[in-house]
Amino acid sequence: MSLSASRCFVVLLAFVTASALFVGCQTSDPEAESDTDTPSEEAPAADSDTAHADSTAAPLRITMLDVGQGEAILLESPGGQTILYDGGTNSADVLGQLRALDIETIDLVVASHPDEDHIGGLDEVIAAYAPRFVLDNGLAHTTRTYERYLDAIEEAGSQLIPPERQTIEFGPVAFEVVPPPGDESFGQNDNSVGFLLRYGDFVMSSYGDAERDQFEWLLDTHPDLFPKVQVHKSSHHASRNGDIASVLERIQPEVVLASLGADNRYGHPHDEALLRYDGIGATVYRTDRHGTIRLRAYPDGSYEVEPAMSVAAIIEARCVNVNRAAPDELVRITNVGPATAQGIMAARPFRSLNDLARVDGLATASIEAIKTQGLACAE
Ligand SMILES: [Zn+2]
């Protein structure tokens, strides 16, 4: 592990908070849509979600934001650490989406490669959040977008991590960097920084916009970077030039997440890609149809998919976190008025809702009513 990686490891570990967190958020059922025009694709259905057995563990949250024809994925560890993998296009307002989701800090920004559909929004995000670390493929681009991205990193004082193979621990989650070849002759797509995300038995893979050349280079030089995964991020927006059959046969994903814009000028998704996913029995979720797609993953390997969720719907569906919510949110909880809300804020943190017994004015019966309401959580 490089010096930078070691430092990163140490600093990110410093963010680790108590691991015994419990969640009580409600899950909305995915909205199945008919795929009449693309018979090769499986229609997402409610029973494609895997019920999670390990309800005592806090989830790893994976959010593929709807950024049109581009890509931006937010990873939130159970310990509260946050990684943003790519930042969408210049016009996608990724910063606005992150703010709407109440994301307060971003510890690490990863740019898979410096094409505009992946780094367009990163200048604003980096300026606003000043992430401690930024990791990219290290290859210069000649665009204004890339210049603005570099300026933002310099201004924010973020530390650049070289795109070497390494594992970055963020809380109980391991983010293993899939390295680019680092050879300019491969082009930008085939110099993507990817990742393997592991949370116990759960594994997700992304190889950026990798095409055949990078996949073959990786298979040759890092063949162990293709484990069996539950979830895979479609390479290159479900282009026919993205995921290759030999990789899909190795990783055997149950779910494929594809980020693309409706009626995009590239014709994504290509039928060839959808047929490949269909051939391994994977269910495909697409931002052009399902909007922002959210997953919760658990260390026993199970996960839940919440497609068809706009940022507004996510905000509507989420729990009121007694450890973080503002007073105007806390009063949505039954038996909590303005005075009790102040008491909750003064008595933080809470390891569970039962801990609310420490708050003046909340009797055991009140806490039972709060649990029955199902709105509050202690995360
Ligand atoms: Zn792209």
What is CATH's topology name of the largest domain? Metallo-beta-lactamase, Chain A
Oligomer: single chain
The CATH fourth-level homologous superfamily of the largest domain: Ribonuclease Z/Hydroxyacylglutathione hydrolase-like
**Distinct compounds present:** zinc ion
Low-confidence stretches: 1-49
Strand content: 15-25%
Please state how the strands of the largest beta sheet are arranged side by side: 6-5-4-3-2-1-14-15
Order of helices and strands: HEEEHEHHEHEEEEEHEHEHEHEEHEHHHE
Count, helices: 13
Biggest sheet layout: 8 strands, mixed
The N- and C-terminal alpha carbons lie at a distance of 32 Å
- Overall pLDDT level: 85
Question: So, CATH architecture of the largest domain?
Answer: 4-Layer Sandwich
The figure for the number of domains is 2
CATH class of the largest domain: Alpha Beta
Shape from CA axes?
A: globular
Structural class comes to: alpha/beta
Q: How many strands?
A: 17
Overall helicity: 25-40%
Instruction: Output the radius of gyration.
Output: 21 Å
What would you note in describing this structure?
The chain has 379 residues and is α/β, with parallel strands linked by helices. It folds into 2 domains: 3-18 and 28-317, Metallo-beta-lactamase, Chain A, CATH 3.60.15; 320-377, DNA polymerase, domain 1, CATH 1.10.150. The chain is built from 13 helices and 17 strands. It has helices spanning 3-14, 94-100, 116-119, 122-129, 144-156, 212-221, 245-251, 271-279, 287-290, 311-317, 327-330, 338-347, 364-373, and strands at residues 60-64, 73-76, 82-85, 108-110, 133-135, 159-161, 167-170, 173-178, 194-199, 202-206, 231-233, 255-258, 283-286, 293-297, 303-306, 320-321, 376-377. Strand 1 and strand 2 form a beta hairpin. It is globular, with a radius of gyration of 21 Å. Mean pLDDT is 85; it is low at 1-49. It binds zinc ion (ZN).
